[in-house]
Amino acid sequence: MTEVNIDSKGYLEIKRGGSFDTMECPYREPRVLQGGGYIPTYCGDWCALFGEPKECDESCSTLRLCQKTIVCKLTDARVK
Q1: Quick check: 42 and 22 in contact, CB under 8 A?
Q2: Is residue 80's pLDDT more than 80?
Q3: pLDDT reading at 73 higher than 90
Q4: Which residues form the domain of 62?
Q5: DSSP state of 67
């Protein structure tokens, strides 16, 4: 089952290849820096399309994102 974190600042992280990666938004353009490079736009709970997690049972949650709902093992580190 996919492992997902929402960190204390609301950033979405998905475990891939043994480590958690902060997910970039596929629908917003990153900010391009003068001289090259860019600052990515990350996926997080500030987005209107980012849903609140719902528990299926003790080991499973669903999380609605922009165009899909994922079933995952979720850790939510946000202050409630």
Answers
A1: yes
A2: no
A3: yes
A4: 3-76
A5: S
Query: Model's pTM, two decimal places?
Result: 0.86
Q: Are 50 and 78 in contact (CB under 8 A)?
A: no
Instruction: List pLDDT tens digits, range 27-60.
Output: 888 888 888 888 889 999 999 999 999 999 988 9
What would the two tokens of residue 55 be?
């528990």
Q: Indicate the burial class of 50 (C-beta count within 10 angstroms; 0-12, 13-18, 19 or more).
A: middle
Exposure string of 15-30, with b = 16+ CB inside 10 Å and e = fewer, is: eeeeebeebebeeeee
Which amino acid makes up residue 20? F
Structural domains counted in the chain: 1
